[in-house]
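Sequence in, structure out.
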Amino acid sequence: MDIKYINDDFRFLYRVSGVIFNKDKTKVLLFNCEGRNFYMLPGGKIKQKEESLISIKREIEEELGYKNLKYSFLAISEEFVEDKGYYNQQINLIYQGIFEGNIDKTKFKGLEGDWVNFEWIDVDKINNYEIFPNEIKKAIINPNKIYHFVENLTK
């Protein structure tokens, strides 16, 4: 069971995300959903009694089929968003992953549905993209330190 709860118009989510780089860290993998004009990191909800490192491995395999990536902790992000009548508070543990394989396509659909569009983006062009959470761009540009982000879009 996922770690989340809803109380009236409040939702809480405990998530894990991955900043997935190619082997020389010149590209990063992001996705967007049909109808949205911003990109996000791949990942998903952490399950009860599941370690976050296990969660990111599971989510990346479910969404992309990628196995055996090397992961290291990169950031924690606290996110506050109002959407579809809910006030959402989210804690997001973010890992850096290295994809050692060859990139055959720079744009492709995810394994979980045609509405998920993945794209390998050049790291040096990351500031040309709208990403949520926006602060993650700092960690993509400089993944050699640990970050703590707070993004409040309810103000």
